[in-house]
Amino acid sequence: MRNGIITGWGKCVPPAVLSNSDLETVTDTSDDWITTRTGIKERRISHVEMSDLSAIAAERAMAAAGVAAEDLDLILVATCSPDRLVPSASTIVQAKIGASNAAGMDLNAACSGFLFALSTADQMIKTGAMHTVLIVGAEKLSHWLDFSNRSTSVLFGDGAGAVIVQAADDQPDRGLLAFEIGSDGTAGDLLCVPASGTEGSADRTELPTFLMEGQEVFRRAVKSMGDASGRVLESAGLDLEDVDLLIPHQANVRIIDATARRLNLPPEKVYINIASYGNTSAATIPIAIVEALEDGKIQPGSVIVFAAFGAGFTWAAGAYRWGARVEALAVSDAELPPNDKTALELLAGNIAIHGTGV
Ligand SMILES: CC(C)(COP(=O)(O)OP(=O)(O)OC[C@H]1O[C@@H](n2cnc3c(N)ncnc32)[C@H](O)[C@@H]1OP(=O)(O)O)[C@@H](O)C(=O)NCCC(=O)NCCS
């Protein structure tokens, strides 16, 4: 049986750091509140476009896999903050990395986007339609930060992660063993960015920013991620004891802890890096994959459960058995252009538009 195996991985986080103490100067909050209520200590603010973050993460993933840009036959970019709606982020990334033989496709499932893309790549590979797929999860959510709203402006950040998924005929029990993707569009208004597309264009009065019912999102995220993870384990014929690592979407450390408790997983089997990056939506899981590999938390044959929840609402989970290799085949020398601004300087435009909360 043909399977899709992750053979390369790379991340790109922009250098400018927005700390909780920086936030204290522009919104009515405190390091203590943000740390205890969310687990976030800092997040990154990008000085370049989301497609630039994506292209560097992609270059690093291709090097790790030993794959050239011309080898790619599909690029899936999971994002809800593309540079432009037209053309697609995936075609912009395609041009930046020179993947002339690939088809490009964007996928917006908000924070669940990377797992929707992984499932899509897996199925395209299993049918034989595709052989080598680049998946990027990338966001520039700082674009929508409004510091007059303290309940959303402390949560989000920028970043990109990428993986290469390749067809393998000789690893029957590896790759994505089972997955679930789901949506509930009736809950769309509970987490959204109004007027971020073409709606209301005739009488637009406000610039886009996040709207969120935090407590309902919290409740639904724990239930959806916990229950979907249990179901994919069952579909894959695995028990909880078989799981080596849970890599959940990083939205709030309390959501992650509650999800792990719902699954009965001990803390040492849960990967958490939210303190460094905040919620980077579709990018959290691929960034976490890269860092879990760097930390030695993923070994050949490790059983990983992925789980995510996001705007839509959308949710997804996957039971994944890692392949034979956990070391990169090569390291890319691709780098972002240098940045000489602080995170707050990069956010001056947001502050000019929305004001502050202090
Ligand atoms: C947003 C979130 C952190 C808020 O935490 P919470 O414990 O639910 O807090 P509440 O909304 O009940 O607010 C509690 C108090 O803190 C205040 N507060 C909210 N944000 C604050 C901030 N950044 N700093 C200080 N105080 C804040 C509220 O105004 C409220 O004050 P009050 O009691 O005087 O009215 C939490 O609901 C959450 O993480 N939800 C999910 C968000 C998410 O993950 N979104 C993306 C999904 S992919």
Description:
The chain has helices spanning 20-24, 31-38, 50-65, 89-97, 113-126, 150-153, 214-235, 253-263, 274-277, 284-294, 343-346, 348-354, and strands at 3-12, 16-19, 42-45, 74-78, 103-107, 132-140, 158-168, 175-183, 191-192, 211-212, 245-248, 303-310, 314-321. With 358 residues, it is α/β, with parallel strands linked by helices. It has 2 domains: 3-172, Peroxisomal Thiolase, Chain A, domain 1, CATH 3.40.47; 175-321, Peroxisomal Thiolase, Chain A, domain 1. The strands form 4 sheets. A 5-stranded mixed β-sheet has the order 1-7-6-4-5, with helices on both faces. The protein has a 4-stranded mixed β-sheet with strand order 8-13-12-11, sandwiched between helices. A two-stranded antiparallel sheet has the order 2-3. α3 crosses α4 and α7 packs parallel to α8. The longest helix is centred in the middle third of the chain and has 22 residues, at 214-235. The model has no long low-confidence stretch (mean pLDDT 96). Coenzyme A is lined by residues 29, 33-34, 37-38, 111, 150-151, 154, 191, 212, 214-215, 217-218, 221, 251-252, 255, 279, 309-310.
Summary keywords:
single chain; 358 residues; alpha/beta; Peroxisomal Thiolase, Chain A, domain 1; 2 domains; 5-stranded mixed sheet; 4-stranded mixed sheet; 12 helices; 32% helix; binds coenzyme A
